[in-house]
Structure formats: C-alpha cells, structure tokens
From TrEMBL:
Name of this chain's protein: Dephospho-CoA kinase
Species: Hankyongella ginsenosidimutans
Pathway connected to this protein: Cofactor biosynthesis; coenzyme A biosynthesis; CoA from (R)-pantothenate: step 5/5
CC annotations in GO: cytoplasm
Role of this protein: Catalyzes the phosphorylation of the 3'-hydroxyl group of dephosphocoenzyme A to form coenzyme A.
Binding site for ATP: G11, M12, G13, K14, S15, T16
E.C. designation(s): 2.7.1.24
Main location: cytoplasm
Length: 204
C-alpha cells in the first residue's frame, strides 16, 4: 500500500483536490471531518477540552468562535488543544488504515491540514502540497461566511508558510490554473504511482 499525505494552507483548494483523488478511486482519510466529529455534540474530545479551556464547550460541542479567539492568539493554547485532539485523530486514522489494508487497497490518501506541523509526513510514502497565488487564496477565503482579513492573517500565522510546505513536499499541485489543470496533475501522479514508480513520482 502507498500512503499519500495531502496538505495545503487555508483556501488553497485542498478539499477540492482530495475530492479528485476520491473520484479516481482512492480512499481518503479526511482529518478535518474527524476533528469536527470529535469536537461536535457528544464528541470524545470535549471533556478534556473543557477541563483545559473551561467554558468553550456545551451541548452543541466545541464553541469554535470562542476557541478560535483563544487558540489563534496564543501558541501555547493552540499546542494544548492539539495535544488533546491529535492523539484521538491518530487512533481514528490507524483504525481506518487497518481497514484499508484488510481490503487490499493499493493507494490511500491522508487529507491532513497540519501534515508537516504534526509530523504525520513521516508516516507517508509520498507528500503533496496544493497551492495557489496568495491573492487567489485571499479571494477564496474572504468569500466564506464570517471570515475577515484579520482572521485570515491569524490562520496564516498558525500554519506553516506555503513556501516551506512546497520545499518539504515531494509533489506540488497547483490549484490556481483551473480545475482541469489540477485534475490532470492528480491523474498524472496516480498513473505514476499505479506503475509503482514511487521515486519517479516525486516533484511531478
């Protein structure tokens, strides 16, 4: 089995690109959706979060507006939250990967926003980063409900800069040239991997 790690900063088109892998038949582990479930109503991360950050959780789960103000402005708080959530996500990911191995799946994708920051790149055979020009990223993000320039700057500060991700990743996938171009990049990478030429797929 080949494990691909996919990452990208906010607004770079990571989810759209992950969907292209899924459309091509590659099972995708969506870390964001797991985090939302763990922090949603009745989520198993809530008790530990409430102990560390009193008043941030309730019947509807984690209050993301309150937690966002705390975590984005305080690196120590952000790390404390990650220390609670990351191990739980890791357990979910291990169970999911075991199921794919039992099925004999040849290629899987980890869709992980903090792939490098969490060290999860070390568990991948190949890492990919999606990227687009900063102005396009800003246009995409500011179209989201409740998003402001200040919040976008806070999110950027909390994530590894894109130029660093591109240096560390094995494959760089552009998302600013249209969906057809991104889809061709995905198909080219998968064609290479399906021929088991792992080393030749890097920097595709």
């Amino acid at each position: 089995m080949i494990v691909i790690g996919l990452t990208g900063s906010v607004g770079m088109g990571k989810s759209t690109t992950a969907g292209m892998f899924a459309d091509a038949g590659v099972p995708v582990f969506d870390a964001d959706s797991v985090v939302h479930r763990l922090q949603g109503p009745g989520g198993c991360a809530l008790p530990a979060i409430e102990r560390r950050f009193p008043g941030t959780t309730g019947p509807q789960g984690l209050d993301r507006a309150i937690m966002g103000k705390i975590a984005f402005d305080d690196p120590d708080a952000r790390r404390a939250l990650q220390d609670i959530v990351f191990p739980l996500v890791a357990k979910e990911r291990a169970r999911w990967l075991a199921r794919q191995r039992r099925r004999g799946v040849p290629i899987v994708l980890f869709d992980i926003p903090l792939l490098f920051e969490s060290g999860m790149d070390r568990q991948c055979d190949l890492t990919c980063v999606v990227w687009s020009p900063a102005f396009l990223q800003q246009q995409r993000v500011l179209r989201r409900p409740g998003m402001t320039r200040e919040r976008l700057l806070a999110v950027r500060r909390a994530q590894m800069p894109t130029h660093q991700k591109r240096r560390r990743a094995d494959v760089s996938i552009p998302t600013g040239l249209g969906l057809a171009t991104t889809r061709r990049s995905v198909r080219k990478l998968l064609a290479c991997l399906r021929k088991r030429r792992l080393s030749g797929c890097r920097h595709a």
